[in-house]
Design brief:
The chain is of the alpha+beta class. The protein is built from 9 helices and 15 strands. Strands 10-11-15-14 form a 4-stranded mixed sheet. A 3-stranded mixed sheet has the order 1-9-8. A two-stranded antiparallel ribbon has the order 2-7. The protein is elongated.
Length: about 375
C-alpha cells in the first residue's frame, strides 16, 4: 500500500511553515491518540502515521529532502533519513516527536517551559535588610539612607553579559530550549542544558567587567522611608531594589525587617504604652500631682488620687503609639509604684512609729488579708 503524502497526513498544504507543521501535528495527535479512540481500532495506525510525518517535517533538512524527492528520499539509501527510516517497525521516534506536543499542551500548566520555549534571563534574588530603630523613631517615623551590598546591572555591557553590549547567541547544545532530552525507552527525560545552564543562550565574547553575568557586585545606597507606628517584625518591601537579574532579567525585591529597640522608660504593647512611675508614700496617701514624660518628648500632669496603692493604673488617652495604617493612636497607661522610704533619720522613725500607732483602721487591705489568714489557720486546726 502506497504511503500517503506527509502533508496530507497532517492536513497541511505542501511547503507549510514549521509553526503550521507543529500546530497540524498537535491537532492530529489529540484527535488520533489511542487513549481517546478505544472504540476505533484504526486510530493507532493513523496516530503512528501522523507521528512519522511529523518526525520528518519538523526537521529542516529532512523536510527539504522530502519536498524534493518525496518518500524516495528515505528509501534505498538516499541518506535523507539519517540512517533509520522513519516509521521503522511502525513506531518511528515516538517519544521525541510526541514530547514536543506534550510540552506545548502541558508545559505551561506544569511550569516547565518559559514563553517561546526559552529562558533568556533570570530574575534577581530578593534581599533582606535588618534595621533597628528606637521607640522614638518608630513613633515619629524616619527617612534614612542605607547601604546594601548587592548585584547591580553591569554598565559596561548594559546587562547583556556580552562585550560591547552584543547579543547572546542561541546555545548549540539545546537549540535555545535550555533543556536537553535523553530517550529512555518509551519516555523522554529532560535535563537542564549543561552548556548554557538552562538560559538557552551562550555568550561567545563575555564582558570583561561582569564575565558574562550581566551584573556586578556593588554596595548600593538606598533612601528608605519608615512610616510612623512600625513595630518589631514589620516588613517593608521595596520593589526592584533587590539583586539585579542575570543577563538583563528583572531585579528582585528588598525587604526591610524592623526591630524596635527596648526603651528605658516605656514598654510597648501594640499601640499602647506603659510607664511605671514611682511615687512617695506620702503622695500616695495624701494625693497630689506629678509630671510624667510622653513619647513625643512632652510632659503630662497626672493627678494622684488620695489613698492610691501600688499597681494602680491611670490612662492618658491618645498618648500611645500611632497605628501603622492610620486609625488614630493608642493610649498611655501610668502604673504607680509606691516607694518605701529608706535611710530614715531618728526623727523620721519616731514620726513613722507614731503614725503607725494611729493607723490601726487606715489599712483596709492589711485588715482583709490578716482576717483571711486567721480563718485559714482556724480551719487547719479543725
Amino acid at each position: 500500500m502506497a504511503k500517503r503524502d506527509y502533508y496530507d497526513v497532517l492536513g497541511l498544504q505542501k511547503g507549510a511553515s514549521a509553526e503550521e507543521i507543529k500546530k497540524g501535528y498537535r491537532k492530529k495527535a489529540k484527535e488520533l491518540h489511542p487513549d481517546r479512540n478505544t472504540d476505533n481500532p484504526g486510530a493507532e495506525d493513523q496516530f503512528k502515521e501522523a507521528n512519522e510525518a511529523y518526525e520528518i517535517l519538523k526537521d529542516a533538512e529532512k523536510k527539504a529532502a522530502y519536498d524534493r524527492y518525496g518518500h524516495a528520499a528515505f528509501e534505498g539509501g538516499m541518506g535523507g533519513g539519517g540512517g533509520q527510516r522513519p516509521g521503522a517497525g511502525g513506531h518511528g521516534d515516538f517519544g521525541s516527536a510526541f514530547s514536543d506536543v506534550f510540552d506545548d499542551l502541558f508545559g505551561d500548566f506544569m511550569g516547565g517551559r518559559q514563553p517561546g520555549g526559552r529562558q533568556r534571563a533570570t530574575r534577581g534574588a530578593d534581599l533582606r535588610y535588618n534595621m533597628r530603630v528606637s521607640l522614638e523613631e518608630a513613633y515619629a517615623g524616619l527617612k534614612k539612607t542605607i547601604s546594601v551590598p548587592t548585584s547591580v546591572t553591569c554598565t559596561k555591557c548594559s546587562g547583556s553579559g556580552a562585550e560591547g553590549g552584543g547579543e547572546p547567541t542561541t546555545c548549540p547544545t539545546c537549540s535555545g530550549m535550555g533543556k536537553v532530552r535523553a530517550q529512555q525507552g518509551f519516555f523522554t527525560v529532560e535535563r537542564t542544558c549543561p552548556t548554557c545552564s538552562g538560559l538557552g543562550q551562550i555568550i561567545k565574547n563575555p564582558c570583561s567587567e561582569c564575565h558574562g553575568q550581566g551584573r556586578v557586585e556593588r554596595e548600593r545606597s538606598l533612601a528608605v522611608n519608615i512610616p510612623p507606628g512600625v513595630e518589631t517584625g514589620t516588613r517593608i518591601r521595596h520593589s526592584g531594589a533587590g539583586e539585579a537579574g542575570m543577563r538583563g532579567g528583572p531585579s528582585g525585591d528588598l525587604y526591610i525587617f524592623i526591630d524596635v529597640a527596648a526603651h528605658p522608660i516605656f514598654e510597648r504593647e501594640g499601640v499602647n504604652l506603659f510607664c511605671r512611675v514611682p511615687v512617695s508614700m506620702a503622695t500616695a496617701a495624701l494625693g497630689g500631682d506629678i509630671e510624667v514624660p510622653t513619647i513625643d518628648g512632652g510632659r503630662s500632669r497626672v493627678k494622684i488620687p488620695e489613698g492610691s496603692q501600688s499597681g494602680r493604673q491611670m490612662r492618658l488617652r491618645s498618648k500611645g503609639m500611632p497605628a501603622l495604617r492610620g486609625g488614630g493612636a493608642g493610649d498611655m497607661f501610668i502604673e504607680l509604684a509606691v516607694e518605701t522610704p529608706v535611710n530614715l533619720t531618728h526623727r523620721q522613725k519616731e514620726l513613722l512609729k507614731e503614725f503607725e500607732d494611729l493607723s490601726e483602721e487606715n489599712n483596709p487591705e492589711s485588715e482583709g488579708f490578716f482576717k483571711s489568714v486567721k480563718n485559714f489557720w482556724d480551719s487547719m486546726k479543725g
